[in-house]
Specification:
The complex is a heterodimer of chains A (482) and B (101).
Chain A: H1 3-21, H2 23-50, E1 56-60, E2 63-67, H3 69-92, H4 99-118, H5 122-140, H6 147-178, H7 191-209, H8 217-224, H9 227-252, H10 259-279, H11 284-309, H12 312-343, H13 358-361, H14 363-377, H15 383-397, H16 401-416, H17 418-428, H18 442-460, H19 466-479
Antiparallel strand pairs in A: 1-2
Chain B: H1 3-24, H2 28-52, H3 56-88, H4 93-96
The chains are: A mainly alpha (482), B mainly alpha (101).
Protein backbone atom coordinates (compact mmCIF):
# COMPACT_ATOMS: atom_id res chain seq x y z
CA UNK A 1 0.00 0.00 0.00
CA UNK A 2 1.21 3.54 -0.59
CA UNK A 3 2.57 5.15 2.58
CA UNK A 4 -0.08 7.90 2.54
CA UNK A 5 -2.83 5.27 2.68
CA UNK A 6 -1.25 3.56 5.67
CA UNK A 7 -0.97 6.90 7.50
CA UNK A 8 -4.61 7.68 6.83
CA UNK A 9 -5.64 4.34 8.34
CA UNK A 10 -3.53 4.62 11.50
CA UNK A 11 -3.78 8.24 12.55
CA UNK A 12 -7.50 9.17 12.60
CA UNK A 13 -8.32 6.78 15.48
CA UNK A 14 -5.17 7.96 17.29
CA UNK A 15 -6.22 11.61 16.96
CA UNK A 16 -9.74 10.80 18.15
CA UNK A 17 -8.56 8.90 21.23
CA UNK A 18 -5.87 11.46 22.07
CA UNK A 19 -8.45 14.22 21.76
CA UNK A 20 -10.62 12.43 24.31
CA UNK A 21 -7.70 12.51 26.74
CA UNK A 22 -6.51 16.08 26.16
CA UNK A 23 -7.96 18.21 23.37
CA UNK A 24 -4.72 19.98 22.51
CA UNK A 25 -3.01 16.68 21.69
CA UNK A 26 -5.53 16.11 18.90
CA UNK A 27 -4.58 19.45 17.31
CA UNK A 28 -0.85 18.75 17.63
CA UNK A 29 -1.09 15.20 16.28
CA UNK A 30 -3.28 16.36 13.37
CA UNK A 31 -0.72 18.98 12.35
CA UNK A 32 2.15 16.53 12.84
CA UNK A 33 0.34 13.95 10.68
CA UNK A 34 -0.06 16.49 7.90
CA UNK A 35 3.65 17.26 8.20
CA UNK A 36 4.51 13.56 7.87
CA UNK A 37 2.16 13.33 4.88
CA UNK A 38 3.97 16.23 3.19
CA UNK A 39 7.35 14.54 3.71
CA UNK A 40 6.04 11.22 2.36
CA UNK A 41 4.38 13.01 -0.57
CA UNK A 42 7.59 14.80 -1.52
CA UNK A 43 9.58 11.57 -1.37
CA UNK A 44 6.89 9.85 -3.47
CA UNK A 45 7.12 12.58 -6.10
CA UNK A 46 10.91 12.26 -6.18
CA UNK A 47 10.56 8.50 -6.70
CA UNK A 48 7.98 9.11 -9.41
CA UNK A 49 10.26 11.45 -11.38
CA UNK A 50 13.04 8.86 -11.40
CA UNK A 51 11.03 5.88 -12.74
CA UNK A 52 10.49 5.79 -16.46
CA UNK A 53 6.81 5.36 -17.36
CA UNK A 54 6.19 7.77 -14.46
CA UNK A 55 3.91 5.42 -12.55
CA UNK A 56 4.80 3.94 -9.17
CA UNK A 57 2.88 0.72 -8.62
CA UNK A 58 2.06 -0.98 -5.32
CA UNK A 59 0.53 -4.43 -5.61
CA UNK A 60 -0.81 -6.84 -3.02
CA UNK A 61 -2.72 -9.75 -4.53
CA UNK A 62 -5.39 -8.26 -6.78
CA UNK A 63 -5.27 -4.94 -4.94
CA UNK A 64 -3.12 -2.43 -6.75
CA UNK A 65 -2.33 1.28 -6.52
CA UNK A 66 -0.89 3.23 -9.44
CA UNK A 67 0.56 6.51 -8.23
CA UNK A 68 0.83 8.74 -11.31
CA UNK A 69 0.87 12.47 -12.06
CA UNK A 70 -2.92 12.74 -11.86
CA UNK A 71 -2.70 11.41 -8.29
CA UNK A 72 0.13 13.86 -7.63
CA UNK A 73 -2.05 16.77 -8.76
CA UNK A 74 -5.04 15.88 -6.58
CA UNK A 75 -2.85 14.90 -3.62
CA UNK A 76 -0.96 18.20 -3.76
CA UNK A 77 -4.19 20.22 -3.85
CA UNK A 78 -5.83 18.21 -1.05
CA UNK A 79 -2.75 18.31 1.18
CA UNK A 80 -2.17 22.03 0.70
CA UNK A 81 -5.80 22.93 1.35
CA UNK A 82 -6.17 20.62 4.34
CA UNK A 83 -3.01 21.98 5.95
CA UNK A 84 -4.24 25.57 5.63
CA UNK A 85 -7.69 24.56 6.82
CA UNK A 86 -6.40 22.69 9.85
CA UNK A 87 -4.46 25.81 10.87
CA UNK A 88 -7.57 27.93 10.26
CA UNK A 89 -9.91 25.57 12.11
CA UNK A 90 -7.82 25.55 15.27
CA UNK A 91 -9.40 28.88 16.11
CA UNK A 92 -12.59 28.63 14.06
CA UNK A 93 -13.96 25.55 15.82
CA UNK A 94 -12.00 26.06 19.03
CA UNK A 95 -13.69 24.11 21.88
CA UNK A 96 -16.73 23.16 19.80
CA UNK A 97 -18.32 19.84 20.73
CA UNK A 98 -16.49 17.05 18.90
CA UNK A 99 -13.44 19.04 17.85
CA UNK A 100 -11.22 15.95 18.00
CA UNK A 101 -13.52 14.14 15.56
CA UNK A 102 -13.11 17.03 13.12
CA UNK A 103 -9.33 16.64 12.92
CA UNK A 104 -9.57 12.85 12.72
CA UNK A 105 -12.06 13.08 9.86
CA UNK A 106 -10.01 15.68 7.96
CA UNK A 107 -7.00 13.36 8.05
CA UNK A 108 -9.22 10.44 7.00
CA UNK A 109 -10.60 12.54 4.15
CA UNK A 110 -7.12 13.49 2.91
CA UNK A 111 -5.95 9.89 3.04
CA UNK A 112 -9.03 8.46 1.38
CA UNK A 113 -9.06 11.00 -1.46
CA UNK A 114 -5.37 10.34 -2.06
CA UNK A 115 -5.92 6.59 -2.12
CA UNK A 116 -9.01 6.94 -4.32
CA UNK A 117 -7.20 8.82 -7.06
CA UNK A 118 -4.36 6.29 -7.20
CA UNK A 119 -6.44 3.11 -6.79
CA UNK A 120 -5.61 0.73 -9.62
CA UNK A 121 -8.46 -1.76 -9.37
CA UNK A 122 -12.14 -1.04 -9.55
CA UNK A 123 -13.31 -2.51 -6.27
CA UNK A 124 -10.57 -0.84 -4.26
CA UNK A 125 -11.47 2.42 -5.96
CA UNK A 126 -15.12 2.04 -4.93
CA UNK A 127 -14.06 1.25 -1.34
CA UNK A 128 -12.11 4.54 -1.08
CA UNK A 129 -14.92 6.40 -2.84
CA UNK A 130 -17.28 5.20 -0.12
CA UNK A 131 -14.86 6.05 2.72
CA UNK A 132 -14.44 9.55 1.27
CA UNK A 133 -18.21 9.82 1.21
CA UNK A 134 -18.61 8.76 4.84
CA UNK A 135 -15.98 11.24 6.01
CA UNK A 136 -17.76 13.98 4.01
CA UNK A 137 -21.20 13.17 5.46
CA UNK A 138 -19.85 13.31 9.01
CA UNK A 139 -18.03 16.59 8.40
CA UNK A 140 -21.07 18.25 6.77
CA UNK A 141 -23.14 17.34 9.84
CA UNK A 142 -20.46 18.66 12.21
CA UNK A 143 -22.83 21.19 13.80
CA UNK A 144 -25.27 18.39 14.53
CA UNK A 145 -27.24 20.50 17.00
CA UNK A 146 -28.46 22.59 14.09
CA UNK A 147 -31.50 21.38 12.17
CA UNK A 148 -30.42 22.80 8.82
CA UNK A 149 -27.10 20.97 9.02
CA UNK A 150 -28.88 17.67 9.70
CA UNK A 151 -31.27 18.25 6.80
CA UNK A 152 -28.39 19.17 4.46
CA UNK A 153 -26.50 16.08 5.57
CA UNK A 154 -29.56 13.86 5.00
CA UNK A 155 -29.97 15.28 1.48
CA UNK A 156 -26.27 14.72 0.72
CA UNK A 157 -26.26 11.26 2.27
CA UNK A 158 -29.30 9.94 0.41
CA UNK A 159 -28.12 11.23 -2.98
CA UNK A 160 -24.46 10.29 -2.63
CA UNK A 161 -25.21 6.83 -1.22
CA UNK A 162 -27.49 6.12 -4.19
CA UNK A 163 -24.77 7.30 -6.56
CA UNK A 164 -22.15 5.07 -5.01
CA UNK A 165 -24.45 2.00 -5.12
CA UNK A 166 -25.04 2.63 -8.81
CA UNK A 167 -21.26 2.80 -9.32
CA UNK A 168 -20.92 -0.49 -7.41
CA UNK A 169 -23.47 -2.11 -9.72
CA UNK A 170 -21.56 -0.82 -12.73
CA UNK A 171 -18.37 -2.36 -11.35
CA UNK A 172 -20.21 -5.68 -10.90
CA UNK A 173 -21.23 -5.52 -14.57
CA UNK A 174 -17.63 -4.87 -15.65
CA UNK A 175 -16.51 -7.80 -13.51
CA UNK A 176 -19.19 -10.05 -15.01
CA UNK A 177 -18.22 -9.11 -18.54
CA UNK A 178 -14.41 -9.17 -18.33
CA UNK A 179 -13.63 -11.26 -15.25
CA UNK A 180 -11.03 -8.72 -14.23
CA UNK A 181 -10.99 -5.69 -11.94
CA UNK A 182 -7.65 -4.20 -12.97
CA UNK A 183 -8.27 -0.75 -14.47
CA UNK A 184 -5.17 -0.89 -16.64
CA UNK A 185 -6.17 -4.08 -18.45
CA UNK A 186 -9.92 -3.73 -18.92
CA UNK A 187 -11.16 -2.73 -22.35
CA UNK A 188 -14.87 -3.16 -22.89
CA UNK A 189 -15.54 -4.29 -26.44
CA UNK A 190 -19.32 -4.32 -26.92
CA UNK A 191 -20.91 -0.96 -27.73
CA UNK A 192 -24.29 -1.42 -25.92
CA UNK A 193 -22.53 -2.38 -22.67
CA UNK A 194 -20.23 0.60 -23.12
CA UNK A 195 -23.19 2.97 -23.32
CA UNK A 196 -24.86 1.38 -20.29
CA UNK A 197 -21.66 1.59 -18.24
CA UNK A 198 -20.99 5.16 -19.34
CA UNK A 199 -24.45 6.21 -18.20
CA UNK A 200 -24.02 4.35 -14.90
CA UNK A 201 -20.63 5.89 -14.15
CA UNK A 202 -21.58 9.42 -15.22
CA UNK A 203 -24.68 9.20 -13.04
CA UNK A 204 -22.89 7.59 -10.07
CA UNK A 205 -19.86 9.88 -9.97
CA UNK A 206 -21.92 12.80 -11.24
CA UNK A 207 -23.79 12.94 -7.95
CA UNK A 208 -20.55 13.54 -6.06
CA UNK A 209 -19.22 15.81 -8.79
CA UNK A 210 -22.44 17.90 -8.79
CA UNK A 211 -23.15 17.60 -12.52
CA UNK A 212 -26.23 19.75 -12.91
CA UNK A 213 -29.39 17.74 -12.57
CA UNK A 214 -27.68 16.00 -9.64
CA UNK A 215 -26.30 19.08 -7.88
CA UNK A 216 -29.12 19.87 -5.44
CA UNK A 217 -27.20 18.61 -2.36
CA UNK A 218 -24.26 20.94 -2.99
CA UNK A 219 -25.49 24.41 -1.89
CA UNK A 220 -27.06 23.00 1.28
CA UNK A 221 -24.01 20.94 2.20
CA UNK A 222 -21.53 23.77 1.51
CA UNK A 223 -23.53 26.37 3.38
CA UNK A 224 -24.15 24.20 6.45
CA UNK A 225 -20.70 22.63 6.78
CA UNK A 226 -18.02 24.34 8.91
CA UNK A 227 -16.25 26.98 6.80
CA UNK A 228 -13.02 25.02 6.49
CA UNK A 229 -14.89 21.98 5.25
CA UNK A 230 -16.75 24.05 2.64
CA UNK A 231 -13.36 25.15 1.32
CA UNK A 232 -11.93 21.63 1.35
CA UNK A 233 -15.02 20.06 -0.26
CA UNK A 234 -15.37 22.63 -3.02
CA UNK A 235 -11.65 22.86 -3.77
CA UNK A 236 -10.51 19.29 -3.69
CA UNK A 237 -12.90 16.54 -2.69
CA UNK A 238 -15.72 17.19 -5.15
CA UNK A 239 -13.29 17.53 -8.02
CA UNK A 240 -11.39 14.35 -7.17
CA UNK A 241 -14.49 12.45 -8.38
CA UNK A 242 -13.79 13.91 -11.83
CA UNK A 243 -10.39 12.22 -11.97
CA UNK A 244 -11.97 8.91 -10.98
CA UNK A 245 -14.74 9.37 -13.55
CA UNK A 246 -12.10 10.06 -16.23
CA UNK A 247 -10.25 6.87 -15.31
CA UNK A 248 -13.52 4.97 -15.70
CA UNK A 249 -14.31 6.60 -19.04
CA UNK A 250 -10.79 5.80 -20.24
CA UNK A 251 -11.67 2.16 -19.68
CA UNK A 252 -14.70 2.60 -21.94
CA UNK A 253 -13.07 4.65 -24.69
CA UNK A 254 -11.18 3.42 -27.70
CA UNK A 255 -14.06 2.72 -30.09
CA UNK A 256 -16.39 5.11 -31.89
CA UNK A 257 -17.99 6.51 -28.73
CA UNK A 258 -17.20 10.12 -27.95
CA UNK A 259 -17.43 10.95 -24.26
CA UNK A 260 -15.87 14.36 -24.90
CA UNK A 261 -18.97 15.92 -26.44
CA UNK A 262 -21.08 14.58 -23.55
CA UNK A 263 -18.74 16.19 -21.00
CA UNK A 264 -18.77 19.47 -22.99
CA UNK A 265 -22.58 19.38 -22.90
CA UNK A 266 -22.73 18.76 -19.16
CA UNK A 267 -20.08 21.42 -18.59
CA UNK A 268 -22.02 24.08 -20.47
CA UNK A 269 -25.23 23.25 -18.60
CA UNK A 270 -23.30 23.42 -15.30
CA UNK A 271 -21.89 26.88 -16.15
CA UNK A 272 -25.32 28.30 -17.02
CA UNK A 273 -27.24 26.67 -14.16
CA UNK A 274 -24.62 27.58 -11.54
CA UNK A 275 -24.64 31.24 -12.64
CA UNK A 276 -28.41 31.56 -12.84
CA UNK A 277 -29.06 29.89 -9.50
CA UNK A 278 -26.37 31.96 -7.77
CA UNK A 279 -28.13 35.17 -8.83
CA UNK A 280 -31.17 34.41 -6.69
CA UNK A 281 -29.22 33.82 -3.47
CA UNK A 282 -28.72 36.15 -0.54
CA UNK A 283 -26.55 33.86 1.61
CA UNK A 284 -22.85 34.41 0.80
CA UNK A 285 -21.83 30.79 1.30
CA UNK A 286 -24.66 29.63 -0.97
CA UNK A 287 -23.52 32.07 -3.67
CA UNK A 288 -20.02 30.64 -3.43
CA UNK A 289 -21.47 27.11 -3.53
CA UNK A 290 -23.38 27.83 -6.76
CA UNK A 291 -20.32 29.48 -8.24
CA UNK A 292 -18.55 26.17 -7.51
CA UNK A 293 -21.17 24.46 -9.69
CA UNK A 294 -20.35 26.81 -12.53
CA UNK A 295 -16.58 26.35 -12.11
CA UNK A 296 -17.01 22.58 -12.14
CA UNK A 297 -18.69 23.27 -15.47
CA UNK A 298 -15.57 25.07 -16.73
CA UNK A 299 -13.36 22.13 -15.74
CA UNK A 300 -15.74 19.65 -17.40
CA UNK A 301 -15.79 21.84 -20.51
CA UNK A 302 -11.98 21.90 -20.66
CA UNK A 303 -11.63 18.14 -20.19
CA UNK A 304 -14.40 17.57 -22.71
CA UNK A 305 -12.56 19.72 -25.26
CA UNK A 306 -9.43 17.67 -24.62
CA UNK A 307 -11.31 14.40 -25.14
CA UNK A 308 -13.18 15.67 -28.17
CA UNK A 309 -10.21 16.99 -30.07
CA UNK A 310 -7.50 14.67 -28.66
CA UNK A 311 -5.43 17.76 -27.95
CA UNK A 312 -3.41 18.03 -24.76
CA UNK A 313 -4.29 21.71 -24.35
CA UNK A 314 -7.80 20.98 -23.15
CA UNK A 315 -6.61 18.58 -20.45
CA UNK A 316 -3.86 20.92 -19.28
CA UNK A 317 -6.11 23.94 -19.06
CA UNK A 318 -8.69 21.86 -17.19
CA UNK A 319 -6.12 20.70 -14.66
CA UNK A 320 -4.80 24.27 -14.28
CA UNK A 321 -8.32 25.52 -13.64
CA UNK A 322 -8.79 22.74 -11.09
CA UNK A 323 -5.79 23.98 -9.08
CA UNK A 324 -6.69 27.67 -9.49
CA UNK A 325 -10.30 27.08 -8.55
CA UNK A 326 -9.19 25.28 -5.39
CA UNK A 327 -6.98 28.22 -4.39
CA UNK A 328 -9.49 30.98 -5.10
CA UNK A 329 -12.55 29.19 -3.72
CA UNK A 330 -10.68 28.25 -0.54
CA UNK A 331 -9.67 31.90 -0.16
CA UNK A 332 -13.27 33.07 -0.66
CA UNK A 333 -14.71 30.60 1.84
CA UNK A 334 -12.03 31.18 4.48
CA UNK A 335 -12.19 34.97 4.22
CA UNK A 336 -15.98 34.92 4.50
CA UNK A 337 -15.65 32.47 7.39
CA UNK A 338 -13.60 34.93 9.44
CA UNK A 339 -16.49 37.42 9.16
CA UNK A 340 -18.87 34.81 10.57
CA UNK A 341 -16.31 34.11 13.31
CA UNK A 342 -15.96 37.80 14.21
CA UNK A 343 -19.62 38.81 14.07
CA UNK A 344 -21.88 35.81 14.74
CA UNK A 345 -22.16 32.48 16.47
CA UNK A 346 -20.06 29.83 14.67
CA UNK A 347 -22.86 28.17 12.72
CA UNK A 348 -24.84 31.17 11.51
CA UNK A 349 -25.67 31.89 7.87
CA UNK A 350 -24.02 35.05 6.57
CA UNK A 351 -26.26 37.24 4.39
CA UNK A 352 -24.75 39.72 1.92
CA UNK A 353 -25.91 42.70 3.99
CA UNK A 354 -24.07 41.37 7.05
CA UNK A 355 -20.75 42.09 5.32
CA UNK A 356 -21.36 45.85 5.62
CA UNK A 357 -18.49 47.82 7.11
CA UNK A 358 -15.87 45.14 6.67
CA UNK A 359 -13.56 47.40 4.67
CA UNK A 360 -12.91 49.71 7.63
CA UNK A 361 -12.90 47.00 10.28
CA UNK A 362 -10.76 44.40 8.57
CA UNK A 363 -8.85 45.51 5.43
CA UNK A 364 -6.87 42.25 5.07
CA UNK A 365 -9.99 40.11 4.85
CA UNK A 366 -11.69 42.63 2.57
CA UNK A 367 -8.72 42.52 0.21
CA UNK A 368 -8.86 38.72 0.26
CA UNK A 369 -12.58 38.62 -0.59
CA UNK A 370 -12.19 41.20 -3.37
CA UNK A 371 -9.25 39.33 -4.91
CA UNK A 372 -11.07 36.00 -4.66
CA UNK A 373 -14.27 37.37 -6.25
CA UNK A 374 -12.44 39.16 -9.07
CA UNK A 375 -10.35 36.08 -9.72
CA UNK A 376 -13.48 33.90 -9.83
CA UNK A 377 -14.97 36.27 -12.41
CA UNK A 378 -11.76 36.10 -14.42
CA UNK A 379 -10.29 39.58 -14.23
CA UNK A 380 -6.85 39.69 -15.95
CA UNK A 381 -3.69 39.31 -13.85
CA UNK A 382 -5.46 37.04 -11.37
CA UNK A 383 -5.35 33.24 -11.27
CA UNK A 384 -8.88 32.64 -12.59
CA UNK A 385 -8.21 34.62 -15.76
CA UNK A 386 -5.14 32.63 -16.78
CA UNK A 387 -6.84 29.23 -16.59
CA UNK A 388 -10.09 30.40 -18.21
CA UNK A 389 -8.01 31.98 -21.00
CA UNK A 390 -6.22 28.69 -21.60
CA UNK A 391 -9.54 26.81 -21.67
CA UNK A 392 -10.91 29.26 -24.25
CA UNK A 393 -7.70 29.09 -26.28
CA UNK A 394 -7.86 25.28 -26.31
CA UNK A 395 -11.48 25.44 -27.43
CA UNK A 396 -10.80 27.94 -30.24
CA UNK A 397 -7.86 25.83 -31.42
CA UNK A 398 -10.23 22.94 -32.26
CA UNK A 399 -11.74 25.10 -35.06
CA UNK A 400 -15.07 23.31 -34.54
CA UNK A 401 -17.94 25.82 -35.03
CA UNK A 402 -20.16 24.36 -32.28
CA UNK A 403 -17.29 24.34 -29.78
CA UNK A 404 -16.32 27.90 -30.64
CA UNK A 405 -19.93 28.96 -30.13
CA UNK A 406 -19.96 27.24 -26.73
CA UNK A 407 -16.65 28.88 -25.81
CA UNK A 408 -18.01 32.34 -26.63
CA UNK A 409 -21.11 31.46 -24.63
CA UNK A 410 -18.98 30.35 -21.65
CA UNK A 411 -16.90 33.54 -21.87
CA UNK A 412 -20.07 35.65 -21.78
CA UNK A 413 -21.26 33.64 -18.79
CA UNK A 414 -17.97 34.30 -17.11
CA UNK A 415 -18.52 38.05 -17.46
CA UNK A 416 -22.15 37.64 -16.43
CA UNK A 417 -21.05 36.03 -13.15
CA UNK A 418 -19.85 39.48 -12.03
CA UNK A 419 -23.55 40.17 -11.38
CA UNK A 420 -23.56 38.01 -8.25
CA UNK A 421 -19.99 38.65 -7.06
CA UNK A 422 -20.37 42.39 -7.26
CA UNK A 423 -23.01 42.72 -4.47
CA UNK A 424 -20.57 40.90 -2.14
CA UNK A 425 -17.78 43.37 -2.97
CA UNK A 426 -20.17 46.31 -2.79
CA UNK A 427 -21.61 45.34 0.60
CA UNK A 428 -18.21 45.41 2.31
CA UNK A 429 -17.82 49.14 1.62
CA UNK A 430 -21.21 50.14 3.07
CA UNK A 431 -21.51 51.64 6.59
CA UNK A 432 -21.22 49.13 9.38
CA UNK A 433 -24.42 47.74 10.95
CA UNK A 434 -23.29 44.84 13.11
CA UNK A 435 -20.39 45.48 15.52
CA UNK A 436 -17.96 42.57 15.86
CA UNK A 437 -18.25 40.29 18.91
CA UNK A 438 -14.58 39.40 18.98
CA UNK A 439 -11.29 39.94 17.16
CA UNK A 440 -10.02 37.62 14.45
CA UNK A 441 -6.89 35.83 15.72
CA UNK A 442 -3.62 35.96 13.75
CA UNK A 443 -3.70 32.21 13.16
CA UNK A 444 -6.88 32.61 11.08
CA UNK A 445 -5.34 35.40 9.03
CA UNK A 446 -2.30 33.33 7.99
CA UNK A 447 -4.21 31.15 5.47
CA UNK A 448 -5.97 34.24 4.06
CA UNK A 449 -2.70 36.06 3.44
CA UNK A 450 -1.06 32.97 1.94
CA UNK A 451 -3.99 32.22 -0.37
CA UNK A 452 -4.32 35.87 -1.47
CA UNK A 453 -0.63 35.87 -2.34
CA UNK A 454 -1.20 32.56 -4.14
CA UNK A 455 -4.02 33.93 -6.31
CA UNK A 456 -1.99 37.00 -7.31
CA UNK A 457 1.26 35.10 -7.95
CA UNK A 458 -0.50 32.38 -9.96
CA UNK A 459 -2.21 35.11 -11.94
CA UNK A 460 1.08 36.72 -12.92
CA UNK A 461 3.22 33.56 -13.23
CA UNK A 462 0.89 30.68 -14.17
CA UNK A 463 3.99 28.81 -15.38
CA UNK A 464 4.82 28.06 -11.75
CA UNK A 465 2.31 25.21 -11.90
CA UNK A 466 3.70 23.69 -15.11
CA UNK A 467 5.53 20.91 -13.24
CA UNK A 468 2.17 19.81 -11.83
CA UNK A 469 -0.24 20.50 -14.66
CA UNK A 470 1.60 19.45 -17.83
CA UNK A 471 2.45 15.87 -16.71
CA UNK A 472 -1.13 15.45 -15.45
CA UNK A 473 -2.44 16.46 -18.87
CA UNK A 474 0.01 14.10 -20.57
CA UNK A 475 -1.10 11.30 -18.28
CA UNK A 476 -4.73 11.89 -19.26
CA UNK A 477 -3.70 11.75 -22.93
CA UNK A 478 -1.98 8.41 -22.29
CA UNK A 479 -5.04 7.07 -20.44
CA UNK A 480 -7.26 7.93 -23.38
CA UNK A 481 -4.81 6.33 -25.79
CA UNK A 482 -3.37 9.46 -27.42
CA UNK B 1 -30.23 -17.81 -20.57
CA UNK B 2 -28.57 -19.83 -17.86
CA UNK B 3 -29.98 -19.79 -14.32
CA UNK B 4 -27.25 -17.31 -13.40
CA UNK B 5 -28.66 -14.80 -15.86
CA UNK B 6 -32.01 -15.03 -14.10
CA UNK B 7 -30.26 -14.22 -10.82
CA UNK B 8 -28.58 -11.25 -12.48
CA UNK B 9 -32.03 -10.10 -13.63
CA UNK B 10 -33.19 -10.42 -10.02
CA UNK B 11 -30.42 -8.16 -8.85
CA UNK B 12 -31.40 -5.54 -11.43
CA UNK B 13 -35.02 -5.82 -10.24
CA UNK B 14 -33.87 -5.31 -6.62
CA UNK B 15 -31.97 -2.21 -7.73
CA UNK B 16 -35.11 -0.94 -9.43
CA UNK B 17 -37.28 -1.61 -6.35
CA UNK B 18 -34.81 0.27 -4.14
CA UNK B 19 -34.63 3.20 -6.55
CA UNK B 20 -38.42 3.40 -6.80
CA UNK B 21 -38.55 3.36 -3.01
CA UNK B 22 -36.11 6.27 -2.81
CA UNK B 23 -38.29 8.25 -5.17
CA UNK B 24 -41.62 7.77 -3.38
CA UNK B 25 -40.77 7.22 0.31
CA UNK B 26 -40.20 10.18 2.66
CA UNK B 27 -39.58 8.37 5.93
CA UNK B 28 -35.86 8.34 6.82
CA UNK B 29 -35.89 4.76 8.17
CA UNK B 30 -37.71 3.46 5.10
CA UNK B 31 -35.28 5.36 2.87
CA UNK B 32 -32.47 3.48 4.61
CA UNK B 33 -34.27 0.21 3.92
CA UNK B 34 -34.56 1.21 0.23
CA UNK B 35 -30.81 1.96 0.13
CA UNK B 36 -30.16 -1.43 1.73
CA UNK B 37 -32.30 -3.16 -0.92
CA UNK B 38 -30.21 -1.48 -3.64
CA UNK B 39 -26.96 -2.57 -1.99
CA UNK B 40 -28.22 -6.14 -1.75
CA UNK B 41 -28.96 -6.04 -5.46
CA UNK B 42 -25.42 -4.91 -6.26
CA UNK B 43 -24.04 -7.56 -3.88
CA UNK B 44 -25.94 -10.37 -5.61
CA UNK B 45 -24.64 -8.99 -8.92
CA UNK B 46 -21.07 -9.50 -7.65
CA UNK B 47 -21.72 -13.12 -6.65
CA UNK B 48 -23.35 -13.79 -10.03
CA UNK B 49 -20.49 -12.05 -11.84
CA UNK B 50 -18.02 -14.33 -10.05
CA UNK B 51 -20.07 -17.35 -11.11
CA UNK B 52 -20.37 -16.19 -14.73
CA UNK B 53 -16.64 -15.92 -15.32
CA UNK B 54 -15.49 -18.83 -13.15
CA UNK B 55 -14.02 -16.75 -10.31
CA UNK B 56 -16.64 -17.67 -7.74
CA UNK B 57 -14.24 -17.15 -4.78
CA UNK B 58 -13.37 -13.61 -5.83
CA UNK B 59 -16.99 -12.70 -6.46
CA UNK B 60 -18.11 -13.93 -3.06
CA UNK B 61 -15.28 -12.29 -1.15
CA UNK B 62 -16.02 -8.97 -2.86
CA UNK B 63 -19.66 -9.37 -1.80
CA UNK B 64 -18.47 -9.83 1.80
CA UNK B 65 -16.36 -6.69 1.55
CA UNK B 66 -19.46 -4.85 0.32
CA UNK B 67 -21.30 -6.04 3.46
CA UNK B 68 -18.61 -4.46 5.64
CA UNK B 69 -18.69 -1.07 3.91
CA UNK B 70 -22.47 -1.17 3.64
CA UNK B 71 -22.78 -1.69 7.41
CA UNK B 72 -20.86 1.50 8.06
CA UNK B 73 -23.17 3.41 5.72
CA UNK B 74 -26.23 1.88 7.40
CA UNK B 75 -24.93 2.81 10.86
CA UNK B 76 -24.33 6.36 9.72
CA UNK B 77 -27.83 6.54 8.25
CA UNK B 78 -29.42 5.24 11.46
CA UNK B 79 -27.47 7.77 13.53
CA UNK B 80 -28.72 10.50 11.23
CA UNK B 81 -32.28 9.19 11.57
CA UNK B 82 -31.99 9.30 15.39
CA UNK B 83 -30.64 12.86 15.26
CA UNK B 84 -33.41 13.97 12.88
CA UNK B 85 -36.08 12.39 15.12
CA UNK B 86 -34.58 14.11 18.19
CA UNK B 87 -34.33 17.48 16.52
CA UNK B 88 -37.50 17.72 14.44
CA UNK B 89 -39.74 15.24 16.27
CA UNK B 90 -40.44 13.52 12.95
CA UNK B 91 -38.72 11.10 10.60
CA UNK B 92 -40.23 12.68 7.50
CA UNK B 93 -37.33 14.11 5.50
CA UNK B 94 -39.55 16.49 3.53
CA UNK B 95 -40.54 18.26 6.73
CA UNK B 96 -36.90 18.34 7.81
CA UNK B 97 -35.64 19.68 4.45
CA UNK B 98 -37.37 23.01 4.47
CA UNK B 99 -34.19 24.56 3.11
CA UNK B 100 -34.94 26.60 0.04
CA UNK B 101 -32.89 26.36 -3.12
Amino acid sequence: MPPLTIISLIFPPTIYLAGHWKLWTARVIALATLGVMWILFISLVRDLISVNPNVTTYTQGIVSFHFDYLSVLITAVVLALSTLITVYSMKDIHDEAGEEKYYALVILLVGSVTSMVCAGDLFNLWMWFEITGIACYLLVAFYSGRGDALAACAKYFIQAATGSIVVLFGIALVFAQTGSLDLAHIHIQSIPLMIVLGVIFIFGFGVKLAIVPLHSWLPDAYSQAPTGISALLSGAVTISSLVVLLRMLAMLSGLALDWGSILVGFGTVNIVAGNLLALAQKDVKRILAYSSVSHIGFILLAVGIGLFSHEIGGFQSGMLHLVNHAVMKALAFIAVGTVIYARFRPNTSLMIDDLAGLSKRDPITTFGVVIACLSLVGIPLLAGFMSKWQIFAAGIATANPVLIFLIVFAALNSVFSLAYYFPIINAMFLPERIPPRRDVPVLMRVPIVLLTAGVIILGIYPDLLNWLVIPAGQRLMILFGG
Amino acid sequence: MTPLHFVLATSIILLGIGFYGLLVIRNMLKILIAIQIMVKGAMIAFVVAGGLNGQINLGQSLAFAVIAVDTVVAIFGLTLAVKIQQHFGTLNVDEAMHLEG
